[in-house]
């Protein structure tokens, strides 16, 4: 993951090729923690993926040391809702930044840590 000061301007929409991506070597990356950023062009989105039925996002990185590499990430429910509410789709470029850390107590009384994230996008 890369860190970045600003999102910048001049994003362009990429063309999206269809196909089965399961056989390639795309690397899974975690969602960014506080102060970290992931950024890329969405190539494909798959709903209800993985153990927790999350939105799987396949993207081409456009920032940092891994620029140009194909990556995969699972978006949590909050991010998935944000994607749908804003009409974000394949071909859009996104920038996801971890902006703050927080603590909360789960239903079992366990202390947990979380990261507030901000999602920006361009068509």
Automatic annotation (TrEMBL):
* Highest rank taxon of the organism: Archaea
- Region ranges (Disordered): 1-30, 103-123
Q: Where is the composition biased (Polar residues)?
A: 1-20
Q: Where is the composition biased (Basic and acidic residues)?
A: 111-123
Write the protein's name: Uncharacterized protein
